[in-house]
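Changelog entry: the Ribonuclease P protein subunit p29 record was regenerated in this release. Current contents:
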Amino acid sequence: PQDSEKAKTFVHALLKRSMPKMKDEDIQDTLTRKAVVLEHYPKRTTKKKGKKTKGFTAKQRRELRLFEIEPEQQRYSIFLPLHELWKQYIRDLCHGLKPDAQPHMIQGKLLKADLHGAIVTVTKSKCPSYVGITGIILQEFKHVFKIITKEDKLKVVPKLNNVFSLELDGFISYIYGSKFLLRASERSAKKFKLKGTIDL
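Regenerated structure tokens:
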């Protein structure tokens, strides 16, 4: 066994090596205590930023035809169940479309709702050939709706300069396409003015 002086010297050297930032008087003060906590100074490591996985570019999506609907799938009857699901979705969203429901509250929710499966009609347009087109919305993009009509024709209708109407349980809502130039995913955070105008 070591004598007390050698033990003190050993402990002092150990503390000096373990805690290089401490002064000698601080080490001596630490030795007078019964418990000694040895500090550890780990090496700082820089975190590597993980690479974000990139999706397809717009050109790649077009080449792969990801959003194309095959001609044999362009039938109105195929998408009627989608419309029934959409109606139930809107009823749940609006807590039931009751006669005493406030129209502006329903209108606000419809403007932010997902319209895939809704039956819409073009009621006004700068281009007369679009007026009267009625069908189920199959796809919504930033600038256009893709609509399947009862005649099994897929129509691409621009939002700009068109007014659309949709009806559900007796409630009719009008969508001003010029004020609606957003992707479906962006509408939930958008604040809409319920009164819209369009220069036709």
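DSSP finds five helices and six strands in the chain.
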